Description:
By secondary structure, this protein is α+β, with helices and mostly antiparallel strands. It has eight helices and eleven strands. Helix 2 (87-103) packs antiparallel against helix 3 and helix 7 packs antiparallel against helix 8 (257-270).
Amino acid sequence: MNIPEYAIAWLSIVALGLSAARIWMEVSSRTAGKRERRSGSRRKGRYETGASKTIGDREIQEDEYGICEGQEGTMAVLADGMGRNYGGKIASRIAVETFLEIFEEENAFYNPQYSFRKAFQGANRRILKEMEEDQGAASVGAVMVKDCRLYYAAVGNVKVAVYRNRELVPVSSGHTIDVLARQKYEEGKLTRQEAVSLLDEHRLYNYVGQDGFRDIEFFDKPVRLYGGEYVVLMTDGLYETARWKDLEDCLGGEGSCQEKAFSMIELVNRSEEEGKDNGAVVVIRC
């Protein structure tokens, strides 16, 4: 090969290398741009969360929770099982799995009330189908935080509350006899004496895992969140064991949502009350 041929070959190799480098840089630039957009999208739609639970003095942990984070918002569900042997544990697991399956679809975030109703009805059907009669059931509470608004639904006695301005305010009422008595008194269907006689009765009258289930407590309108609030889901094993003021102190202290959830559950673990129930909490910060 003579000198001109060497020169031509060398120039061809250099040109090919420059062309490949240019293509690589363009692809890298596009990929980086996509990465930045996806990352920004996740930051925009993500809410800080934390969760914890304790078995208390029971032999079986029947509380279960799940959190689903999507581009449109965050959904959290908390179930408090009850039943014979492992019935309560299985029922709460079925309920949580049903909610997570439904809210894995982004479309579920567009119509909160419809999606909540679908999840509750689905959980009720699955529990009845997979378990023997009266073997297991569950109280279930669920929240969705979307566009700085809180949507919630509850069945049984899982409590939904919002912490703002150093105060933890319940937003759900629950399905216990004492709550029903107050409602019937306000409707004029019970006398004051009849209602008062039932105020210490905290027995559940509604839960998933029963024939004829249909009553779901829904939000009248979404709760506006202004930033910095904490949305809290709690089972009765927590809020009936710990003092409400101590729960507020945990939420008002320093730390992440996960650290706050741990500190709230520690209130149950440190309690000297005998026969402590399972306790569980989910904390979401807007």
